[in-house]
Amino acid sequence: MEKGKHAYFLSDLHLGLPTALPPLERERKVVRWMEEVKPHAAALYVVGDIFDYWFEYKYVIPKGFTRFLGKVAEFTDAGIEVHFFTGNHDVWMFDYFPQELGVQVHRQPLVTEIAGKRFYIAHGDGLGPGDKGYKFLKKVFINPVLQWLYARLHPNFATWLAHKWSRSRRDPERGEKGVDGAFLGEDKEKLLLYAKELAKTEKYDYMVFGHRHLPIDFLLPGNVRVIVLGDWLEHFSYAVFDGEEIELRYFEEEEEK
């Protein structure tokens, strides 16, 4: 990584999801952040659930996200690496992003070296103990035959159905099981438990996850740093690696300076 340049990480934008801040305003906020970090960026890692729903038909992609996608194109056109990780809400990314935007799409955890430091990067869904129901559901989502059958649905109906299912899981009385909420403790956080087990057999400097919607910075035995990126629904958090250290930051705080 070039001296003076940084690698940036963020996740769980859930673009398109109605929240207290309207979807278009959240997208604009992401784009403002991208404009701010672009001069310093060597690479951008967007670690899953970029969209609240995404499915690519052969000739059709979901409506919207024009500002965000245009900014991504600016990054890749400027020679900045952009990595998209599929999450549980946008697992159906196929060839559009590599071909149209020059983005590298990762469907599995990525082990990579950045400035001499070893990183393990993953969205985080289905990792760690338990959650057998979701792990089965993910197998359904990534099954090629079932993807082909889903693609036979008209985009209007398929998109309506997907949004209805997604929002039903965010019922205020139910929440989204296993994702939102306060820190559960070192012995109960699934991603920390997963990271601990992984660190027993492989040496990493940093492990970076999304999915949990809660910013977490935790040091494991052996000086392994675990970063959970939070989200852009409530926290507007991200991580920056300067070649020596990684740090969690919050865009709202920087806007107020």
User: What is the structural class?
Assistant: alpha/beta
Number of strands: 11
Percent in strands: 15-25%
- The number of domains is 1
Spatial separation of the terminal alpha carbons: 28 Å
CATH homologous superfamily title: Metallo-dependent phosphatases
* Strand order within the widest beta sheet: 4-3-2-1-10-11
Shape: globular
Under the CATH scheme, which class?
Alpha Beta
Largest sheet: 6 strands, mixed
Return residue spans where pLDDT drops below 50 for at least 5 consecutive residues: 171-179
The residue fraction in helices comes out at 25-40%
Order of helices and strands: EHEHEHEEEHHHHEEEEEH
Rg on CA atoms, Å: 18 Å
CATH domain fold name:
Purple Acid Phosphatase, chain A, domain 2
User: What's the CATH architecture?
Assistant: 4-Layer Sandwich
Total of DSSP H or I helical runs spanning 4+ residues: 8
Model description:
The structure is a single chain. This protein is an alpha/beta fold and 257 residues long. It has one domain (6-255): 4-Layer Sandwich (Purple Acid Phosphatase, chain A, domain 2), CATH 3.60.21. It has helices at residues 23-37, 66-77, 96-101, 132-141, 144-151, 155-168, 190-199, 251-255, and strands at residues 6-10, 41-46, 81-85, 104-106, 110-114, 117-122, 206-209, 215-220, 224-229, 237-241, 246-250. The strands form 2 sheets. The chain has a 6-stranded mixed β-sheet. The protein has a 5-stranded mixed β-sheet with strand order 5-6-7-9-8, covered by helices on one side. Strand 3 (81-85), helix 3 and strand 4 form a beta-alpha-beta unit. It is globular.
